[in-house]
Amino acid sequence: MPAVAAAISPSPPPVAEATASPTPLPEPSPSPTATERYPITTLEAVPPCAVRDVPTAKPYYSDWASTIVDSTYSVGADYAPPDLVGADEAGLSSYFQVRSIMIPDLQALADAAWAAGAPLAIDSAYRSYDTQVWTFWYWVSELGYETAIQSSARPGHSEHQLGLAIDFKASGGPDPWDYYNFATDSPTGQWLAANAWKYGFLMSYPLGQSAKTCYGFEPWHYRYVGRDEAAAIHASGLTTREWMWQHQPNPEPQGPRPWPSPVLAS
Ligand SMILES: [Zn+2]
User: How far is the CA of 223 from the centre of ligand 1 (A)?
Assistant: First the structure.
């Protein structure tokens, strides 16, 4: 179906033909801010946390800073970023994989945390669709479906499948969920809550925001969005899900659409 293929795999814009009379070069414009690159196109409130399977509106690997996955929006089963690398490239454990685009900022985050006396380690990072199948159904067997759905993402709906989410822990410490509140009871959790945004990482599921984020409080779960977006979201006071919802066009696809093919758009 060529029309659909064109819609989900846009071809690059045509290159302008050379003209006989050269036109003056445009003045260089300053780098666009995050808000300029992702202008607010809707002021609708973030949608309720329905349990649905809707293809996310930003499915390309190059959309990494704005791909929404939640209880409704999914990247599908075949989403597996092509640039996964071991976290040892940022001086952390090679057991965990993350997208290569975050390595410089992850290294800077880990170095700054260490220097501040709050050394960090990774408890979980990239999880494939198949791993998330196992993870979700493990929690269903432990907690029952209705409870599991509030703390574990269904396959295709996890930020961990994006290769952008990291569950942090204190280096040498227990699992972060063993604290009453990792964000206040652990020096590492405290430091992350105050400083991670400066390095491009945001806590996806803050305390008291579950109606907006669709999940309970997870003070260990951070998503990388890049420093510009993280600063903008931090300044907005919104959760990451709300901010992304307000800054992407047509977040709800109109009518039936095939599952997106998560190819590289650039
Ligand atoms: Zn997590």
Answer: 9
For residue 138, how many other CB atoms are within 10 A of its CB?
Answer: 12
Query: How many angstroms does the Cα of residue 254 sit away from the middle of ligand 1?
Result: 30
pLDDT digits (tens, 9 = 90+) for 160-189: 999 999 999 999 999 999 999 999 999 999
d(CA 192, CA 187): 9
Distance, CA of 93 to CA of 169 (rounded, Å) = 12
Question: 62-121, pLDDT tens digit by residue?
Answer: 999 999 999 989 999 999 999 999 999 999 998 999 999 999 999 999 999 999 999 999
Q: Is residue 16 part of a domain?
A: no
Strand partners, 73: 54
Q: How many angstroms separate the alpha carbon of residue 122 from the centre of ligand 1?
A: 10
What CATH number does the domain containing 177 carry? Answer: 3.30.1380.10
Q: What angle do CA 71, 105, 235 make, to 5 degrees?
A: 60
**H or E element in which residue 74 lies:** strand 73-74
